[in-house]
Amino acid sequence: MSHNTFGHLFRITTWGESHGPALGCVVDGCPAGIALTEADIQPWLDKRAPGQSRHVTQRREPDQVRILSGVFQDERLPQQVTTGAPISLMIENMDQRSKDYSDIRDSWRPGHADYTYDAKYGVRDYRGGGRSSARETAARVAGGAVARKVLGEAVTIRGALVQIGPRAIDRSRWDWDEVARNDFFCPDAQTAALWAEDMDAVRRDGSSVGALVEVVVRGVPAGWGAPVYGKLDQDMASAMISINAAKGVEIGAGMAAAALRGEDAADEMVLGPDGRPAFTSNFNGGVLGGISTGQDLVIRVAIKPTSSIRIERRTLNRDLEETAIATKGRHDPCVGIRAVPVAEAMAALVLADHKLRAEAYRG
Amino acid sequence: MSHNTFGHLFRITTWGESHGPALGCVVDGCPAGIALTEADIQPWLDKRAPGQSRHVTQRREPDQVRILSGVFQDERLPQQVTTGAPISLMIENMDQRSKDYSDIRDSWRPGHADYTYDAKYGVRDYRGGGRSSARETAARVAGGAVARKVLGEAVTIRGALVQIGPRAIDRSRWDWDEVARNDFFCPDAQTAALWAEDMDAVRRDGSSVGALVEVVVRGVPAGWGAPVYGKLDQDMASAMISINAAKGVEIGAGMAAAALRGEDAADEMVLGPDGRPAFTSNFNGGVLGGISTGQDLVIRVAIKPTSSIRIERRTLNRDLEETAIATKGRHDPCVGIRAVPVAEAMAALVLADHKLRAEAYRG
Amino acid sequence: MSHNTFGHLFRITTWGESHGPALGCVVDGCPAGIALTEADIQPWLDKRAPGQSRHVTQRREPDQVRILSGVFQDERLPQQVTTGAPISLMIENMDQRSKDYSDIRDSWRPGHADYTYDAKYGVRDYRGGGRSSARETAARVAGGAVARKVLGEAVTIRGALVQIGPRAIDRSRWDWDEVARNDFFCPDAQTAALWAEDMDAVRRDGSSVGALVEVVVRGVPAGWGAPVYGKLDQDMASAMISINAAKGVEIGAGMAAAALRGEDAADEMVLGPDGRPAFTSNFNGGVLGGISTGQDLVIRVAIKPTSSIRIERRTLNRDLEETAIATKGRHDPCVGIRAVPVAEAMAALVLADHKLRAEAYRG
Amino acid sequence: MSHNTFGHLFRITTWGESHGPALGCVVDGCPAGIALTEADIQPWLDKRAPGQSRHVTQRREPDQVRILSGVFQDERLPQQVTTGAPISLMIENMDQRSKDYSDIRDSWRPGHADYTYDAKYGVRDYRGGGRSSARETAARVAGGAVARKVLGEAVTIRGALVQIGPRAIDRSRWDWDEVARNDFFCPDAQTAALWAEDMDAVRRDGSSVGALVEVVVRGVPAGWGAPVYGKLDQDMASAMISINAAKGVEIGAGMAAAALRGEDAADEMVLGPDGRPAFTSNFNGGVLGGISTGQDLVIRVAIKPTSSIRIERRTLNRDLEETAIATKGRHDPCVGIRAVPVAEAMAALVLADHKLRAEAYRG
């Protein structure tokens, strides 16, 4: 059963609500002997943290991570390392303002999980969205940072935003170095500038907008994954759709594969300059039959617009009376921006798991 | 670990290769007391079976299913019912012509899993694609038929083909009754006629083409699914991407969600004519926060063009020499057509599992 | 994969080392709407806590539990309840004296997991036994307290010590009320008095002694459990052997079943005074074919003597040199005493899980 | 969820009833490239098969196994090998005499799972015990044969019967070679002779008797297993108690550990003649902290007397009327005898799984 656990051999169990005392993540199945301190995790949390530009929520969530277990150092070890025991990561919640929640307590916010949580559980922690809050993704990012350490230097996981609302980047201008330079993880500087204008308008309108995240993984050797129901791309799809607000996922050509013809879509094989198998294209996104080809893994995930908007929408209250609701307070006008480090983390978690699964059968 | 098992409480384990003596499926976790005979399963297999029109492969696979365990009837029971024990379903392979496989034994077919299986396993049953053959999906369909019995009459799962190659249906002409009348599971008669022409051209060219499958599920009550990593849409995405040749999956608005604004994407709630909660739209495809809303579930999956084409493509052989390969024999020019009953079956499997998971917490 | 998670639908993931900052437990799969505060958990931890008599370790571990997530209360709810979200329980470690660990750092203590951890992981947190410390069982007890709330009043789980060293209780004097009155969870006052003398001698010798724990569960209805590999007694056996120092487990007649004849061992069925099925004996310990009969569940687990003793034993150091080691410091001379609440907790965890599994198929 | 699946990375899913058309086993997670034919499996089934002496049931079950998937051979491969795909094993049921089952249809046989199956499922395949029949163990033995191939020559798994009824072997006469020479898998020839007399008396009385099986595994390296909830001995206990009629399991000293003192129970470490770590005793049965020590694994399992006896016992029928029942037909007077190869198979399954799990973390 999945519940709040993701992964098989390498896995995380996350816990915590938006406005509880803390949230966290137990990383289980991490190999022993891997150097790990909080400094390996914190930068990824900082990348996800709000308040870094005017385009994301202005909440204050410093998101300082603490490692509570699973690491060890003594005078004989040059650095702190994992021991193979579960690694408990905790982030205390700092910005828990006492607020008036009567609005969202009694009414179901459209596009949110309010109604479905009530339908399923009968009780709901509505403060800041409770368990359905995007704050849970901080725990994913923390776990993903450990996964990156398991993967090591050979595997590079990079995410970028390739579309905000109707405006997509120009792929001919893709520059990975640009991603860190703008407020949008955008690999195309010109589009980033236009997005800044777009976003100002969206915020002014009290609205929000969707986005498209792309994750590219380099360095996965051929042979990770498994056929049928243990497919690498299947686990990637599962990981990506599990992210809050995700509505679609693509591997390689993705939905566009429907429009292709066989002679175009088949990634032909040739001998690479290093004398190893190479491909003339990557419509399959680095996966064939559920198993990695050694090419870049290419995954895209569509994030819907933030449901918390200042524009009033119709809804019902818990007494089944029609009413209307508008969200106050500080919200991301494009939650897709901060989904970039989350999608990277999910990719790392899937790959660390599949790395170990591949090791089990290395023979 | 997943390997060849799909599902948690209700689950299937499939086995078998394209050209082995048989293939099958063990359905485990089926409740007791459900009426079940081979006649409940066979029609769904027949729907998936090849040879039903000129647009699909002309192989002969009668796909007769046998129930080997898990059912019982005596003179006191009016009909054969499940006992709660595992239900073993077996389909014998009939059309195993002895062929010359030296081509695909030595060379990796582009777009197929040949290279990745060799990379992972070192050995490969290349006869008809072995385990990576679409024949494995017959076992899914058989298992899905049992899942439908678990779901009962209240839940209706229907699939349709909404795009072949670049040509999409006109949604204003959607007619579910039409789906059974043409060779394409197409809900739009006019488009079906055009597809017939398109497909004749594709076959003439020795090529193949992609397609888009849409599955719509009616009757799922609000409250199935679970947050975070047990999401209903997450399991749907996992199920759909696990289908051979699938490259993308969408829930509700899907990839188009990226282009939306918050006020458009939020499915507003109103009081329905029956005095129960209703929605003014369904951009979320019937799932919010991983839990069903009671609306129709809407899932789309993109199927890439069949990689087996008569047009020669470049590739490598196992000695890493550059060569070329063209596929001979009888292949589906659009494997997406027969993916429709497979996608329906996967949806049924996910829902039967989530129904039981919901029951566990009904309290 | 199990790793540090126990259970399926209802499950715990524990983390933490003996001398780290904290230890804890994530309870996942708990139904919503169950009243739960720290006061429901603390008494069970207190029962397990050391320092309560001269017969257990004199370490100071107040073991104050905090609930960090998964519960909620507002002005409309009469009490704090579970929300269905994961319940994170944390216990801070208080008594972490800075000590000289060079002895156990370099040498493998006989009977402990030192050598095997080194063989498996290459690195070992030796402070207080690290992850292999019995402190981990505090997390089990905390999780078990939540499991008891899931089971409710109808199910009563009681444990007792029935043997210390070679001296067993007289079962004809069994009195459940006596269990809370002595230092040994002993249901036989006379034996408890003798044990006190035995234990004084053992402590004087710097030795330790084994014990036998019996858990009796009343109120489980007929029909919990599952055949073949989901057996209730199988999960009980797994749960009990997972307790530190456990070497054997018995269901009902247990090992003595080997000596029985069929006509004696078959628990005959008769009509009970309430007109319901009853049994004339309980050699099967309340389980037939892996499924509960409605009788008391009876489980026994043998706990070996504490391996930490003041008597010097031969061993090797990490340089593979022969040496000798004696344990200093405060240790339980009979770890079996404090295993009683742990075994109760494990029984509760198994039963909460099987209750939910049974619900899933209630139909 | 376990249901009918056992294991994690290496696992089996078994199916089939006593009197259905067939029973079988899907072995999933078997590494590729392992030589495997039916000849590797059949001898273990023959060892378990009934009818081999007057001391076991005289039913005729030739138990011919067929491999339906997961293996491959072509002209380039010197022998048939596994491909990494699921291995489907099927055994057809031959001896399905049409019988009058009205007795066991309407009444619950004491000591059998009849009542509990009815309580759980409401419907029951009573023919020959249905799913609860010991015939299911043929599937375990078939799966265990594959597990042995995964373990290879380095690991030796041997089982023996060490007690029948009240009579135990004399361990000073233990001779592994003797096990194959008598009808009881008994390592002590003198005791075997006495058992033959005992059994003749038991059969004459129409009764049955319990037994004690011991499994000894040589060649497991130090470091297999995992702490806390993934313990090697925990999985062994789970495996053994899952065998029909098992009521207790012991690791090393087992239940007797309760009576020991610390200085006796600690297996001291010394330098072995090969310069590697060795132990002076094996009270821990080859496992410390859930991880193998490199010593022999020693596991014992108690099997209760066969519940099917000719002596009439009281019971209830489904109308809750008191009645009596005696079993007719051919039954094992000591089901413990044929449990020996089953216990060996379960040990093999646990070890193949843990071998792969250890590989995953070999680093």
TrEMBL record, chains A, B, C, D:
Name this polypeptide is given: Chorismate synthase
Domain of life: Bacteria
Subunit comment: Homotetramer.
Species of origin: Alkalicaulis satelles
Annotated function: This reaction introduces a second double bond into the aromatic ring system.
GO biological process per UniProt: amino acid biosynthetic process; aromatic amino acid family biosynthetic process; chorismate biosynthetic process
Lineage: Bacteria, Pseudomonadati, Pseudomonadota, Alphaproteobacteria, Maricaulales
Entry-linked HAMAP family: Chorismate_synth
Entry binding sites for FMN: R131, S132, S133, N244, A245, G289, K304, P305, T306, S307, S308, R330
